[in-house]
């Protein structure tokens, strides 16, 4: 046996064990890494106001605290207002449910010539196996829902703490990162940091504009239909549909439909149609144009980055995909050597005539009508 073979086998086994250990640790820490990624982009988003207050003499930690306090007050006020509105509408639905049931039973009796009664329907529902199984499953799922709520609160606290430290200690973090790099690389890291701040701010600006447009559009519809709490519902649709990726659209449209149903069941159908039509308009017309202008990337690249981010990281990937791709594109563009473009008409989409011979139709016509060479000069003697 060669002397190097046992050493090579030990080294190979050690590399395999290290790879397995690293893969296991990465899968175990995936949730924490995603939370850190969200916190980093949140810190980039609040970097401009924090830096502005710090430049005026305020301590950076206190400035970060004020920004987070303002965000917390705004979110708490919105949730409180929305919760009170939702509770009132649920009470109204419960109180008016017998009237809704009577109207449905009357419509069924008139349409199908049946003889249904509300008492029979209520007894059938109360003694049905479906309701009993639903109650049992709901009771068994209370602990699961409580665990998910506690897990979500802990995740929110983790993201908030990391974002606070990233924003408050941003200069120290940049100095620490630059201290392990040569001077030629330090400028590139600082430039990439500034680009990330600009692109993240531009992305949030575009989201804010789309939330404003969506809120106004849905407010006009709900006000025209006479749905109560139209301003609050408009704000709800605008914020939830823009800042909760993937399922935000469905969550945003469900509440206005529920409130509209309490006024008139037909109004809920109109709200559903409007939500679907507006969502298509936003996805294919409004969002690509605003995103391309605010973060300076092509609409197709923005759309593809959202799909790729969703495939990689789910909802989080869809939220951070556009600012991440915009930052990478802006940073790499400084290292791509560009040349002057020629004045060839084909660059502008115009084809040069006379360079490729006769066209296909002209050549086919010439071959069809051309006579054989031997018959051109024949004549009867």
Give the topology, please.
Blueprint: H1 4-28, H2 30-45, H3 47-55, H4 60-112, H5 118-126, H6 129-140, H7 142-168, H8 170-179, H9 183-225, H10 230-243, H11 248-263, H12 265-295, H13 299-313, H14 315-333, H15 360-369
Helix pairs in contact: 2-7, 3-4, 8-9, 9-10, 9-12, 9-14, 10-11, 11-12, 12-13, 13-14
Task: Give your account of this protein's structure.
With 381 residues, the chain is mainly α. 81% of the residues lie in helices and 0% in strands. The chain has 15 helices and no strands. It has helices at residues 4-28, 30-45, 47-55, 60-112, 118-126, 129-140, 142-168, 170-179, 183-225, 230-243, 248-263, 265-295, 299-313, 315-333, 360-369. Helix 8 packs antiparallel against helix 9 (183-225). The chain is extended.
Output the structural class: mainly alpha
Q: Helical content, roughly?
A: over 70%
Instruction: Summarize model confidence as the mean pLDDT.
Output: 77
Strand content: under 5%
Q: Note the main sheet.
A: none
Shape: extended
What are the low-pLDDT stretches, counting only 5+ consecutive residues below 50?
373-377
What Rg do the Cα atoms give?
Answer: 32 Å
**Ends: how far apart?**
101 Å
Overview in brief:
This protein has 15 helices and no strands. The chain has 381 residues and is mainly alpha-helical.
Keywords:
single chain; 381 residues; mainly alpha; 15 helices; 81% helix; extended
């Amino acid at each position: 046996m060669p002397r190097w073979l046992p050493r090579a086998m030990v080294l190979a086994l050690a590399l395999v064990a290290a790879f397995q250990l690293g893969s296991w640790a990465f899968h175990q820490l995936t949730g924490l890494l995603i939370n850190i990624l969200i916190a980093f982009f949140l810190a980039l988003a609040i970097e401009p106001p924090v830096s502005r207050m710090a430049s005026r003499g305020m301590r950076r930690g206190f400035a970060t605290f004020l920004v987070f306090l303002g965000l917390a007050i705004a979110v708490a006020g919105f949730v409180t207002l929305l919760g009170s509105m939702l509770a009132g509408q649920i009470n109204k639905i419960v109180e008016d449910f017998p009237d809704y049931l009577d109207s449905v039973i009357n419509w069924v009796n008139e349409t199908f010539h049946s003889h249904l009664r509300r008492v029979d329907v209520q007894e059938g529902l109360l003694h049905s196996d479906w309701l009993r199984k639903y109650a049992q499953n709901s009771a068994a799922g209370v602990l699961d829902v409580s665990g998910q709520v506690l897990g979500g609160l802990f995740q929110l606290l983790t993201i908030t703490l990391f974002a606070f430290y990233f924003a408050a200690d941003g200069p120290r973090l940049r100095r620490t990162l630059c201290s392990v790099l040569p001077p030629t690389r330090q400028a590139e890291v600082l430039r990439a940091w500034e680009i990330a701040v600009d692109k993240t701010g531009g992305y949030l600006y575009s989201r804010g504009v789309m939330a404003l447009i969506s809120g106004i559009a849905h407010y006009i519809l709900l006000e025209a239909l006479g749905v109560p709490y139209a301003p609050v519902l408009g704000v709800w649709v605008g914020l939830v549909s823009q800042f909760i990726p993937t399922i935000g659209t469905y969550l945003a449209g469900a509440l206005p439909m529920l409130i509209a149903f309490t006024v008139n069941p037909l109004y809920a159908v109109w709200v559903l149609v409007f939500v679907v039509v507006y969502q298509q308009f936003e996805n294919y017309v409004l969002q690509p144009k605003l995103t391309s202008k605010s973060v300076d990337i092509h609409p197709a690249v923005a759309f593809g980055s959202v799909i790729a981010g969703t495939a990689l990281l789910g909802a989080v990937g869809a939220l951070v995909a556009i600012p991440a791709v915009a930052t990478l594109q802006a940073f790499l563009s400084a290292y791509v050597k560009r040349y002057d473009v020629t004045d060839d008409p084909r660059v502008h989409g115009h084809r040069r005539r006379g360079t490729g011979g006769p066209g296909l139709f002209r050549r086919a016509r010439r071959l069809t009508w051309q006579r054989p060479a031997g018959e051109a000069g024949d004549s009867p003697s």
